[in-house]
Amino acid sequence: MSIAVGEPFDVFRARYESAVPRFEAERFERLVEDEADWDTIRQATAENAPHTFIIYWTGDFNALLRLAGDRLRCVEYLMGNHTIAQRMFHHNPAIQLYAPLRTAIHEDAEGETWFSVEQPSSHFSSFGSPDITEVGLELDRELAALLEYLGVPVPAALT
Fold first, then answer.
1. What is the mean pLDDT of residues 68-84?
2. Are 1 and 155 in contact (CB under 8 A)?
3. Are 119 and 1 in contact (CB under 8 A)?
4. H helix intervals, 7-155
5. Residue 129 dihedral angles phi and psi, to the nearest 5°
6. What is the bridge-based pairing of β-strands 101-107 and 113-117?
């Protein structure tokens, strides 16, 4: 899915990264070292993810691609929530192919900024498990809520 966001690249990128904060790696490393219980992990995750999702990785190759003469910008992300992924993982660890979700903020030749993301339910339903499919549909709704919060048009397929 690619959605025109209606604002400049840098403005939307800053708002997205504010709504979807970075994974607090040091905090969770300490929790792992302390062998925290899963309820503690859930609570820490909720605190880290005010809008359900966390950024686990960012790829910004714009400077490198400019060396080839490309001027369009694109930043890609791995966005997800490990407590939600866990609910699918114990049914089939291969869900890690699609969790976290791949997202991108990019420009087109006319300077329009776009947000692109793979629809969670389309990937997770491919595992043929009703339990995994249900979580994929939940992720569709959570993604719709994030887009709504960001003021971005919500594709009908997510609702």
1. 95
2. yes
3. yes
4. 9-19, 25-33, 38-48, 62-66, 82-89, 120-124, 130-150
5. -115, 120
6. antiparallel
**Predicted local confidence at residue 23, as pLDDT:** 98
Query: How much is the pLDDT for 150?
Result: 98
Residue 104 — very low, low, confident or very high, per pLDDT cuts 50/70/90? very high
> What residues pair up with 106 in beta bridges, in sequence order?
74, 114
Predicted confidence at residue 78, as pLDDT, reads: 98
Instruction: Summarize the confidence of residues 27-48 as an average pLDDT.
Output: 97
d(CA 155, CA 137): 14
Indicate the residue type of 26: E
Q: And the tokens for 79?
A: 């966005």
- Dig out the tokens for 52 from the structure: 């359900």
Q: Which of 121, 123, 125 is nearest to 155 (CA)?
A: 121
Percent of the chain with pLDDT over 90: 94
* H or E stretch at 126: none
Other residues' Cβ atoms within 10 Å of the Cβ of residue 140: 19
pLDDT of residue 20: 98
Contact between residue 20 and residue 146 where contact means Cβ atoms under 8 Å apart? yes
Strand, helix or coil at 56? strand
Enumerate the β-bridge partners of residue 58.
77
